[in-house]
Amino acid sequence: MAASAAVAFAAGSIATFVALGPGSHEPVSELLVASHERALMASQPIDVASSDRHTVKPWFNGKLPQSPRVVDLTAQGFSLVGGRIDVINLMPVPTLVYRIRQHVISLTALPASRRADAPFRAIDGYNVVEWTDGPVAYWAVSDVAAPELENFAKAFRAGDAEP
User: Fold this and answer.
1) What digits encode the pLDDT tens for the residues 140-159?
2) Looking at residue 16, what is its pLDDT?
3) Measuring CA to CA, which residue among 69, 65, 126 is closest to residue 91?
4) For site-directed labelling of 12, which of 28, 74, 108, 142 has its Cα 20 to 30 A away?
């Protein structure tokens, strides 16, 4: 009887570790929405506040292995607000923050080797758009309407980045 209780306890512990442990299989899009929501709850959704890409891009140097591509989209109605470092699946990643009217857009750059969930999703009232550019997968998250977030993604892909 004691042996079967020990086996049941061990099996339950292993199952719990697999389900909740460090190898969590939560979709990347859900992790990014959670990061976006956390940033919106903070007094500032950014670590470096600047509308100048010449300030935001260098801020990431030394903090991350590679700075993200930073595009000025002011002419398209999307103003750069700054940037922050998020942690997704225990990995620090750069997130650029843009604004259109009162809406915040979080744009996170992840290694493209991460499996994409889908190019577009809606999660808990937030829209998520994903695209790949070479070795980088970009993920935009916002409560802005889906067509506007798609326009943001198109403008970012077509925009000139800081060299």
Assistant:
1) 999 999 999 999 999 999 98
2) 35
3) 65
4) 28
- With contact defined as beta carbons under 8 Å apart, do 98 and 152 qualify? yes
Q: Is 96 exposed, middle or buried (0-12, 13-18, 19+ CB in 10 A)?
A: buried
- d(CA 69, CA 29) in angstroms, rounded, equals 20
Closest residue by Cα to residue 38 from 86, 98, 99: 86
**pLDDT reading at 22 higher than 60:** no
Annotate 32-65 with three-state secondary structure.
HHHHHHHHHHCCCCCCEECCCHHHHHHHHECCEC
Strand runs labelled E in 12-158 = 48-49, 79-88, 91-100, 103-111, 120-123, 126-133, 136-142
65-91 residue pLDDT tens = 888 999 999 999 999 999 999 999 899
Complete domains list, the chain, with CATH: 26-158 (3.30.200.100)
